[in-house]
Task: structure prediction
Amino acid sequence: MEITSDNPIDHLPADELEARQIELLKKQLTYTLAHSPFYRCKFSEQDIAAISRLSDLSGFIKTSKKDLAEFNAEFLSIPQREVVEYVTTSGTTGKPVTIALSKNDLERLAYNEARSLEIAGFSADDIVQITTTLDKCFMAGMAYYLGLIKLGAAVLRAGQGTPEFHWEMIRKTNPTALIAVPSFLQKTGSHASAVSNRITKALCIGEALRNADFSDNQLSKNIKKHWDIDLRSTYASTEMATAFTECQEKQGGHLLPELIILEILDKNGNEVADGELGEVTVTPLGIEGMPLVRFQTGDLARKHTGVCSCGRTTPRLGPVEGRLAQMIKLKGTTIYPNQIEEILHNHPNASPYLIEIDQDYNGLDKVSLVLPETFPEEESNRLLIDLQAKLRVKPTLKKSSVSAIQQLLFRGNSRKPKKIIDLRNASA
Ligand SMILES: [Zn+2]
Result:
């Protein structure tokens, strides 16, 4: 699969795009039926042949994260000797999930990421410093590396490190772009004015940069306070092995039509209207190692199908507005921890922080925030007023030492900071 700077598939009229996707979907489902022990009896050749619209996929079985964790080995669809890479996810139930990739899957991953980087404005002229984890069986860091190489860009495989370490690398090698988690850029950015650099852009993962209407969120504004940098958001997960990445218009991440089918479903499993919030459900295409059909990510976002101002006709995926597993129900309203985080980002002294969700003896959800003991009292009041006004939530504030909070962020040897402590199902 070759990449070109202006891929014709991104500009197809809607009906041609759907026809192309149906063809690839049928191929993927036929392969899955023949090779995946998990899906063997879940649908038939007739079901596949009957697909004439993408919406016909709604008749197929959905796959949950729980399915993938509980029956992990049954998803393996190639002989073990054809596996070239194992990556892991932490899994929602705590059970680690292994995803096995074939040689072609790895090539597909590189192609996917090169396409994504190109949409984000990266090219062979760039020198790119990767500041995210490259090892520990993570898929993402490897995908960026492979994608950048495929694109012909020069890579600085810096990996995880302190802001000081990264600025030292920047001084030495003068990169033009970064791949980073937004909150890391926020922390690192305060050094930006002190060190001369030619970094003009960053591909951002793990946290949203926009509000639902695509305006910059607080985190994005905070980063730009320190440096003039073009931030592009990309969304992906290990299971989907496919990225949705913003073009220069920043109106949602563009779907790569040759690599994935996207559905946004309501709680009854029905597709929501264009622009409505629902669960991101995906069927990745061209996968050999562990194909997934209608995989439910647990992430809530909106799909936008209007033609983008950049000229691409491919659907765009808005920012993740919440995760189903972290839904908090408060006296008739529903909120998600990331809405609380958006407000916390407006209070720079409230870092690091933890959001604790628990249930009271009536079975009602309650929220506590754990903040550094240095967080000033008068700002605590302002924060509570902010939360009450914008979310109608009045959490209990707890103070703790920075080191204790840091320890809890990486509890259970977690590879990523876990800012949400959900105690609701602790006894289950
Ligand atoms: Zn666009």
